[in-house]
């Protein structure tokens, strides 16, 4: 079995696409209308795929505190500089629980916790 993607209902599709392309580095690979007022976008980085759904009728997004999406970055320092430049507050961290990994958390425009991680081999 292979994991295909993770789905998130978003309030504003364009705002969410901008976050995931500019901050996380994903690319839009497919975007389409799925019925009256419903838009879907798939974003991909080669290994990671997420699906964003925006329903014009129901723009509520209910993201819990017990889930996060983690994305590996080449440099945590550069990622920190980027989020500060974009005005995105750091939710927690940076943390380094061992000599091989360090990370911090931010939130996407819908409240989803995003963990940016540097693996230091």
From TrEMBL:
This protein's UniProt keywords: Lyase, Metal-binding
Organism superkingdom: Bacteria
Stored SUPFAM superfamilies: Glyoxalase/Bleomycin resistance protein/Dihydroxybiphenyl dioxygenase (SSF54593)
Molecular-function GO term, any one: metal ion binding
GO biological process: L-methylmalonyl-CoA metabolic process
Xref: InterPro entries: Glyas_Bleomycin-R_OHBP_Dase, Glyas_Fos-R_dOase_dom, MMCE/EMCE_epimerase, VOC_core
Domain VOC, first and last residues per copy: 2-119
Pfam families per UniProt: Glyoxalase (PF00903)
Protein name: Lactoylglutathione lyase
